[in-house]
Amino acid sequence: MAVPKLKRAERDKFILEAVILEAVKAPRGTRDVLGDETWKWAYVSEICRNVADDYGYREVHLPIFEHTELFARGVGDTTDIVEKEMYTFTDKGGRSITLRPELTASMVRSYIENEMNKGPQPAKLWGIGPMFRYERPQKGRYRQFVQMDMEALGAQDPLVDLEVIDFSMEIYRRLGLSNLQVVLNSVGCPKCRPVYRKALQEYLKSRYDDLCDTCKSRYDRNPLRILDCKSPICKEITENAPAVMEHLCPECAEHFDRLMRGLDKIGAKVVLDKRLVRGLDYYTKTAYEILSGDLGSQNAVCGGGRYDNLAEAIGGPHVPGVGFASGIERVILTMEAQGCSFGRKPENKVYVVAAEPSARLDAMALMRTLRMNRISADMDYMGRSMKSQMKNAASTALYACILGTSEIEKGVVTFKDLSAKTQEELTPEQIINKLK
Ligand code: HAM
Question: Would you say 384 and 395 are in contact if contact means Cβ atoms under 8 Å apart?
């Protein structure tokens, strides 16, 4: 904030006003999801939950912050996430803490800490919640965003990779999404990757000077990431670069082949993309993304893959794993762009109208009876006239229940169908039976 040259008192006032203005704005890259949107979120999480149940995955709730070391070691300290994007702070006990940028490392930490290796394998876990990355905000990219994440831990079998890819596709199928593309690659393992790394560096050597500055710095530390650089010049340089696929060891090649046969068996259409390396260091063998044709540049609704060495990287035993995460904001943006249904929008069924102020307590009692019978109901708390209560009823509910002195004396309610514009006198029991 640039502070203009002012007298001291004016200057203090200026700063105070600016601070107050900031305090009533959500931080950059975050957003409020309000009532006209939250029902869509509930619908999407419900579908995720249903699919997880059907595939045998159990929901877990893990901490929103973890020791920084977990992500530094797990996600990899040459990744953009660890180098530039983590929300890290020192807590009052002097520990370095990070708001989770993703869930996979936490899932693996939890598997080790809770000795899930002693239970049935693979351990099948899923979770949903906010993640935090200090990225440049744009459509579909936020600093706080929500991921649905699932992980299968403890199994090597490529059929589990198949289950993971199928699981993600099943969520989008149930949500009614179309125009999606599954892109797939194998990034090899610590046996074959060093050979590939060398071949790639060798290929890039003669064009090193033309690479963008970021890719120059990646050349020694993490040359595979040069393959998915978005700069046109780096894209052109890597156009005909050797592919990891051509350097896979027999074990990785066999794994990939069995996965491809499985995808073929279930009729899944995938596109092979030799440039797909993903932005997290832990991947081995399978890496995949699902891209939406209806989002702008932030078009990945889902990213995942296998990470057989992550558990060891964070100081645990060998635990092979595979999973994916999907950004809920991007899923909702795609659904909106494609006009998908979000189920029924919640609305009040009944608005209870007190014809006179003396009927308000009876109106309250009627409203409570309706609510106890699971019929959503509301009433006026602002002392409005009957006319404006009826106006509220018409804009917020399907039916109005009108109570005045004469209805109270007779033990009935004037029940009005606000769209058919019909009305009749009914007892509360009759109303309940009609609306249930
Ligand atoms: P990721 O590709 O970093 O992978 O993120 C997965 C998904 O989260 C993306 O495809 C996107 O939908 C969403 N996403 C990521 N960053 C943002 C953002 N800044 N704003 C909005 N949405 C975002 C992972 O996080 C891995 N942990 C996935 C995984 C699970 N791999 C194996 N298991």
Answer: no
